[in-house]
Amino acid sequence: MSRTVGDGLSELRGKLAAAGIESSAREARRIMAAALGVAPDRVSLMQTDPLPHAAEDRLSGMAARRCAREPLAHILGLRAFYRHEFRVTRHVLDPRPETEVLVEAGLGAPFERVLDLGTGTGCILLSLLAARPGAEGTGTDISEEALAVARENAQGLGVADRCNLLKSDWFSAVEGQFDLIVSNPPYIAAWEMDTLEPELRYEPRGALTDEGDGLTAYRAIAAGAMAHLGPGGRLLLEIGWRQGPDVSEILRAAGFDSLRILSDLDGRDRVVSAARTLS
Ligand code: GLN
Fold first, then answer.
1. Same-domain pairing of 36 and 95
2. Is the beta carbon of 184 within 6 A of some atom in ligand 1?
3. 3-class state of residue 123 by DSSP
4. Is 122's C-beta closer than 6 angstroms to any atom of ligand 1?
5. Ligand 1 centroid vs 16 CA: distance in angstroms?
6. 73 inside domain
């Protein structure tokens, strides 16, 4: 006799909770839905259905990976961010909800040409392009594997014809000027890496930390951005919640003005906005 979907679900929830996963109920439902190949909201309707053997096998494989604290987005291969779903692999940073603040801020600025430095999945750039039909964008990454993921996401969102995805070390291969430059660079200091949640071990280390004080990327971006930002253009950078004063100072020293710090939904500093005033 095979188990029911409901039995499988409660056992999975228990395993996830025992592995220290906070939102065990929500994640169990997502994993069960993926094992069954249905939408998560169908799972509760199927509680008394028998769990097919093939689904049982997929379920135990996914459960083992998640209990080893591999990120859910890697197991499902997808992550919802802003208004779309993005393909995610171990070669890119898993898009975080805090980063949506950066997308909102970008859409509050007038732009026709946007540059995203260290695009990863492309979640920031592609969300901006999808929401702003006339705009064009360039996304850079130092990782070829990340660029392949971003290209796939650009196709998926139907914006590939308006976006150029380019291998570049910050500005090294970037040409021309933009109205908006955005980035969510690696900003975790080397010493902080060991204090963070276990899921981060599965993400590319170079997407998370500069192996230094956490500010290396901001120095590189501040040094190059002025030459690639048109007059009146805006620079929006995601920051760690304690980095507002330091990043503001780096940008001010590089000649930026109109500095503002925007908070995320938890009320923490999350984005620094700076302008290049007409001159
Ligand atoms: N731009 C991508 C994101 O915000 C990747 C950022 C990164 O790898 N540091 O998710």
1. no
2. yes
3. helix
4. no
5. 27
6. no
Judge whether residue 154 has pLDDT over 70. Answer: yes
Q: Is residue 258 part of a domain?
A: yes
Residue 89 labeled ligand binder: no
Whole-number Cα distances in Å, 155 to 184, 190, 256: 22, 35, 35
Strands 229-238 and 269-275: antiparallel
The band of 1, judged by pLDDT with boundaries at 50, 70 and 90, is low
State which of 35, 68, 101 marks the end of a domain: 68
Residue 99 Cβ contacting ligand 1 at under 6 Å? yes
Domains identified in the chain, total number: 2
**Are residue 249 and residue 126 in the same domain, yes or no?**
yes
Q: Is 122 annotated as a binding residue?
A: yes
| Percent of the chain's residues with pLDDT above 90 | 95
Please give the Cα distance from 94 to 30 (Å, whole number): 17
Residues 121 and 232 in one domain: yes
d(CA 121, CA 79): 10
pTM of the model: 0.94
Structure tokens that stand for 222 in this block? 């501040």
Check if 93 has its Cβ closer than 6 Å to any atom of ligand 1: yes
Which residue range(s) make up the domain with 121?
90-275
* Token pair listed for 77: 């291969």
Residues 193 and 128 both lie in one domain: yes
Q: Is the pLDDT of residue 45 over 90?
A: no
H or E element at residue 261? strand 257-263
Residue at 265 is within a domain: yes
**Is there a binding annotation on residue 140?**
no
Q: Is 185 in the pocket of ligand 1 (CB under 6 A)?
A: yes
* Residue having the nearest C-alpha atom to atom 3 of ligand 1: 95
Distance, CA 81 to ligand 1 centroid (Å)? Answer: 12
Q: What is the ipTM of this complex?
A: 0.93
71 appears as a binding residue in the annotation: no
Tell me the CATH number at 143: 3.40.50.150
55 is a domain residue: yes
